[in-house]
From TrEMBL:
Keyword line: DNA-binding, Transcription, Transcription regulation
Origin organism lineage: Bacteria, Bacillati, Bacillota, Bacilli, Bacillales
Homology family: Belongs to the LysR transcriptional regulatory family.
Domain annotation HTH lysR-type: ranges: 1-58
One annotated GO molecular function: DNA binding
PROSITE patterns the record matches: HTH_LYSR (PS50931)
Segments passing through the bilayer: none
Gene source species: Paenibacillus qinlingensis
Protein name per the record: DNA-binding transcriptional LysR family regulator
Length: 296
């Protein structure tokens, strides 16, 4: 089967739009449609179904997509193995992370040592990182544990805890509150991440443990936006301690106060994960060891 046809096929799978896929590939839409028809003739089955203006992947298309990704994965593995011969002078790592702040120090150190290695870091929820690892769209991830998928290997890094962050104008800051019980958070307006994120799930699980029914007044999708809520005295924000610690100078400049949460403490282990069947090339092995060293 023509490698080029599979490239075209995967582009349409990802875009679910022939015109957008054609623009991405740098070819005309009629040419792309003709190439997809050629591929469908070769496999003997329709790969896409049009319903109005929408494009859907057929059952046969899903089968081909899965195997196509495996083909490209194997080719990338071969390239990684050949890169070994060049002493990490080229290559690429695709990384999924539950918060880019977790890898900032590692990325700076790694890039300084190996400037020709391309690093692509995506900030994703833990489940999204897992899915992309299993579909060969990522090489390694830093996620919340435990991870029980038999296809993934996990290395624990540290225990993440959550803290309440408020502005200097907040009553808790003025009263110099040292700790706050989880139940007390129901008495003040709070901003948190959306429910797909493990940071939010940590809070929800802790609340369930003590029979506390409670929801935040604001739900957002980034840690930066939560920090802005606290900074502008809109409400308090629940943030990971690792993020708060990394923002030390900015916290002081913006006169923000971090208060540990207790009874119970919302916490969860964070670790680095990759596929067990992944060829652990020198580039990836070095990066993984660098991450472990940074958290040691």
């Amino acid at each position: 089967m023509d490698y080029r046809l599979l490239v075209y096929f995967l582009a349409v799978c990802e875009e679910l739009h022939f015109t957008k896929a054609a623009e991405r590939l740098g070819i005309s839409q009629p040419t792309l449609s003709q190439q997809i028809r050629l591929l469908e003739d070769r496999v003997g089955s329709p790969l896409f179904q049009r319903m109005g203006k929408k494009v859907y992947v057929t059952e046969a298309g899903e089968i081909l997509r899965k195997h196509s990704r495996n083909i490209f994965h194997e080719l990338e593995q071969a390239q990684m193995a050949m890169n070994e011969l060049q002493g990490m002078q080229r290559g690429r790592l695709r990384i999924g992370c539950s918060g880019n702040h977790l890898l900032t120090a590692t990325i700076m150190t790694f890039h300084a040592k190996y400037p020709k290695i391309e690093l692509s870091v995506m900030e994703l929820a833990t489940e999204e990182t897992k899915e992309k690892l299993l579909s060969n769209e990522l090489d390694v991830g830093v996620v919340f544990l435990p991870e029980e998928d038999e296809q993934l290997r996990c290395v624990p890094l540290y225990q993440e805890k959550l803290q309440l962050v408020v502005s200097a104008q907040h009553a808790f800051a003025q009263e110099q509150v040292r700790e706050i019980r989880l139940a007390e958070l129901t008495e003040i307006p709070i901003a948190m991440l959306q429910q797909k994120f493990y940071v939010r799930q940590m809070m929800d699980d802790c609340c369930a443990q003590i029979g506390l029914a409670w929801k935040p007044i604001v739900e957002l999708s980034t840690l930066e936006s939560l920090l802005q809520m606290a900074k502008n005295h809109v409400c308090g924000a629940i943030l990971p301690q690792s993020y708060v610690d990394g923002m030390g100078a900015q916290m002081r400049e913006q006169k923000l106060c971090a208060i540990p949460i207790i009874d119970p403490v919302p916490q969860k282990e964070v670790g680095i994960v990759h596929r067990k069947d992944m060829f652990l090339c020198k580039t990836m092995d070095t990066f993984v060891k660098q991450v472990i060293q940074e958290f040691a």
